[in-house]
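Chapter review: from sequence to fold.
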Amino acid sequence: MGRTYGDLKGVTIKLSPDQKFFREIENDCSLLLVDEIHIVHEADQMYLSGTHFSVDYESGDISKTQERGQIYFSTKYEQSYFEGDE
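The token string follows.
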């Protein structure tokens, strides 16, 4: 499942239908039905990709757009934990 992102290697996890989930896109409040998780460990980045839906919150309408969407995250190492540590 390795994949190359530019010069960086990463991992792509394809979700099964029962693993998919919705995530709100903060800048326009649309929705992304996530079907892939991409981890680019060398760059400390992760992104979610999937089907993009526009949402009209006033009328309650949700419509699928033609393009796929992505949400990018920067990851930061916080700490390690090992079983047996107290």
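Two observations follow directly from the output. The first strand starts at residue 2 and ends at 5. The chain has a mean pLDDT of 87.
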